[in-house]
Amino acid sequence: MSKLFAPTLILALTVPFQAIAAGDPAKGEKLYNRCSSCHAIIKDGQILVKGGITGPNLYGVVGRVAGTESDYLNGSERLPIGMFTDDMIRAGQEGLVWTQENIATYSKNPIAFIQEYLDDETARPNMSVKLKKGADDIAAYLATFNE
After folding, report:
1. So what's the pLDDT on residue 54?
2. What is the spatial distance between Cα 65 and Cα 121, in angstroms, rounded to a whole number?
3. DSSP secondary structure string, the chain?
4. CB 4: neighbour CB atoms within 10 A?
5. Number of other residues whose CB lies within 10 A of the CB of residue 59
6. Is the Cβ–Cβ distance between 103 and 76 less than 8 Å?
7. How far apart are CA 142 and CA 140, in angstroms?
8. CA dihedral 78, 84, 88, 93 (to 10 degrees)
9. Whole-structure pTM value
10. pLDDT tens by residue, 53-103
11. In b/e form, how buried is each residue of 25-48, taking b as 16+ CB within 10 angstroms?
């Protein structure tokens, strides 16, 4: 058996799963209303997608360190508001950087995600809503809002 067989097999098995996990941005755009009660998408003061201010701005979330966005919009005025739990800030300090994949996983069960990431069964994020369907698609949609 070739030394390349195992890595090739692993790659062949992984690629289809990554494609499935990638989600569909068009479907995510239609499902985003589940998120907009708490989150807006704002770039340089321009509202790209209307939403609430109780959650962080999701523009550029893919690639952002968790617990670091502190710029929220209140009407036409930008206000710094600390909306993260200490646990979410701690997750960022311990290296959690948002990716399309972990946003989808987080969205399916935010409390379990943070508890597992921090290895702390008492850890809590602010978000407690669980997306039973469409988390991969919403994460793919959010990935379209990066520079």
Report:
1. 80
2. 22
3. --TTHHHHHHHHHHHHHHHHHH--HHHHHHHGGGTTTT--EEETTEEEE---SSS---TT-TTPBTT---EEEETTEEEE---S-HHHHHHHHTT-B--HHHHHHHHH-HHHHHHHHHT-TT---S-----SS-HHHHHHHHHTS--
4. 9
5. 22
6. no
7. 5
8. 50
9. 0.78
10. 788 889 999 999 999 886 555 545 555 555 678 899 999 999 999 999 999
11. bebbbebbeebeebbbbbeeeeee
* Cross-strand partners of 53: none
Query: Per-residue pLDDT tens for 12-53?
Result: 444 444 444 589 999 999 999 999 998 989 898 888 999 887
Question: Residue holding tokens 């850890």?
Answer: 123
Amino acid 84: pLDDT: 77
Angle, helix 110-118 to helix 100-108, in steps of 10 degrees: 120
The Cα 119–Cα 129 span in angstroms is 21
